[in-house]
Design a protein that fits this description.
This protein is an alpha/beta fold and 570 residues long. Helices cover 24% and strands 30% of the residues. The protein folds into 3 domains: 236 residues, Alpha/Beta hydrolase fold, catalytic domain (Rossmann fold, 3-Layer(aba) Sandwich); 93 residues; 184 residues, Chitobiase, domain 2 (2-Layer Sandwich), CATH 3.30.379.
């Protein structure tokens, strides 16, 4: 009797547990339609919001295509989701006729989602820190958001699409062309791309592109230049020009959810017969089945690799020193036969393998895998200065010389100023820490880039690494500024001694590109690995990049020594 009673109790208890689990699962399911989610960003230990659309009759067992939308300047993720579905249009610019509900401004429109056309897609729009462009931290937010979506839902990775308008249209070109094998197709609308993006137009060789512009748009010339390039390079280019329309072509481009219908034609091909890829950075060194293993960061490296038949590949390179072909999975590759690879006219018979590698020895290509040296420039240790603020970083001011209260306050104010990302659209939602040198924790050395102000005499963190750093500014040097980046502990140290890198120039030079992220951050984008200046950055004493082994070029070292204000460790 006791055994039967115990068994009944266990059955009842197990049923209750299952009911609770089922109840919790049901409670955690998201409702269909548009709503907000967030992911945790390790850049500044914050939750970052994004809007997501979940289809009606959502099926957890089904893999859904994903459309990523990048909003424009002075906008946000919630307005972005409305634009994507063609509901509520104007971004609120002074020179654009409002397109929301009559008399409704963008603040009011942000408060709710109107009815959307049902589509069988998951769609997502990140805040990406506000009006910050889509390089560095906001760029990482986009990929972090995609990773978060993949953790929550089944995403068909061969049907991930990218679109955006204005600033977001420029971001669409930048993200689409730096990592073309992530996307099945891209659709930039009235794009404002970052400087240098057009050099990557050839990377669209396997990407369908839809470009939209109004012929009265102030970005019309930019769009037509892209049209000319993409007509020659893109896998497919659809181009629409709206007569009489200014910088609000998205009102037509996204009307009635058109972009979902256009995207539905395309799936990603991870193994195209031909790959064209150009890059200047180890950070973006891979496309499809081609990886660039060695190059000079900041200088253009290009590769064209194509199958001319089964197990026959022709490769033409420019500006690179090593590459790998990952062949496993390509329909023209058979592991049962040798592979014939012709590199810049030289043919190699290679034993069949999932991947084959080549590198330059002197001026000759050899069938060998390149391995970077411990101190070589490589992915995660390539610079330039802007890389230090593109991920997790903290700003550190010095107290090592026990400064008086007013000097300490000035040093802290300088670090706070650098950490306050004020962009052209107002406060950017990046919140790095500002600490004194004595407050830097061991975990900071492990996980963050360090932006260090002062000299080795005034900042104990600079002093800690003084013998390993390449140079130091004389603390007695007046009216000089020295800023450089250097790899340390698999992260970066950025040292700024003397005048800050954002010291205003005496004469205003033409702004390059769009300063979405504000003057301080944008100033770093325009620099290489190091800069020594007198009075203002326009009065350059020495500037440029370290070589591939993080050594100063001879001419730069000579200029730095000649200034008489810098002590060299190299």
């Amino acid at each position: 009797m006791k055994i039967i009673t115990s068994t009944i109790r266990l059955v009842v208890l197990f049923s209750v547990v299952l009911t609770c689990i089922a109840g919790r699962t049901d409670a955690q399911r998201l409702k269909p339609g548009p709503q907000d989610l967030s992911f945790f960003s390790t850049v500044d230990d914050t939750d970052q919001p994004y809007s997501v659309y979940i289809p009606e009759n959502f099926d957890e067992s089904k893999a859904y295509p994903l459309v990523v939308f990048l909003h424009g300047a002075w906008s946000n993720h919630r307005l972005g989701m409305r634009r994507l579905f063609g509901v509520g249009n104007s971004q609120g610019y002074d020179f654009i006729k409002p397109g929301n509900v009559p008399f409704e401004n963008d603040v009011e429109a942000t408060r709710y989602f109107p009815p959307f056309r049902p589509v069988d897609y998951i769609a997502a729009a990140p805040l990406a820190r506000g009006t910050a462009g889509y390089q560095g931290v906001p760029e990482q937010d986009v990929y972090d958001m995609i990773d978060d979506l993949k953790a929550r839902f089944r995403i068909d990775e061969d049907r991930i699409y990218l679109t955006g308008l204005s600033m977001g249209g420029g971001g669409t070109l930048w993200l689409g062309l730096t990592r073309p094998d992530v996307w099945a197709a891209i659709a930039p609308v009235c794009p404002a791309p970052p400087e240098g993006t057009i050099d990557l137009a050839g990377n669209a060789a396997n990407l369908p592109v839809h470009l939209f512009i109004g012929d009265k748009d102030f970005l019309y010339q930019t769009a037509t230049e892209w049209k000319g390039r993409l007509e020659k390079t893109a896998h497919r280019l659809d181009y629409v020009e709206y007569p009489g329309v200014g910088h609000n072509s998205w009102e037509w481009a996204y009307k009635d959810g058109f972009i979902f219908d256009w995207f539905s034609q395309f799936k990603r091909d991870l193994f195209p017969d031909k790959v064209n890829f150009t890059t200047k950075w180890f950070k973006y060194n891979k496309a499809y089945w081609v990886t660039i293993d060695d190059m000079v960061p900041g200088e253009k490296a290009s590769v064209e690799a194509k199958f001319t038949g089964a197990n026959n590949i022709t490769v033409v390179t420019s500006g690179l020193h090593a590459f790998t072909l990952s062949l496993n999975g390509h329909p023209l590759f058979s592991s049962a036969k040798k592979v014939s690879v012709t590199v810049n006219g030289n043919t190699f018979g290679v034993k069949s393998a999932d991947s084959v590698s080549f590198m330059l020895e002197g001026d000759k290509w050899v069938n060998r895998k390149f391995t970077p040296g411990l101190t070589s420039k490589q992915k995660g240790a390539e610079g330039p200065l802007y890389a230090a603020v593109s991920g997790s970083h903290i700003y550190v001011y010095g107290t090592a010389d026990n400064p008086p209260a007013d000097v300490l306050a000035a040093r802290r104010a300088q670090a706070m100023s650098a950490a306050d990302w004020i962009g052209m659209g107002g406060r950017i939602m990046v919140f790095p820490r500002v600490v004194a040198d004595r407050e830097v924790r061991e975990s900071d050395y492990v996980r963050s880039n360090l932006i260090l102000f002062g000299t080795r005499e005034t900042n104990s963190v600079i002093g800690k690494f003084a013998d390993k750093l390449p140079m130091h500014l004389d603390p007695k040097a007046e009216n000089y500024g020295l800023v450089y980046i250097f790899p340390m502990n698999r992260h970066y140290i950025l040292v700024n001694s003397g005048l800050p890198w954002w010291t205003p120039p005496k004469s205003q030079s033409a702004q390059r590109g769009f300063a979405f992220s504000g003057s301080k951050v944008e100033a770093l984008k325009n620099l290489g690995d190091f800069l020594l200046f007198r009075e203002s950055p326009e009065n350059t004493v020495a500037a440029g990049n370290f070589d591939k082994d993080w050594k100063l070029p001879a001419d730069a070292a000579e200029a730095l020594k000649g200034a008489g204000t810098v002590k060299m460790n190299q």
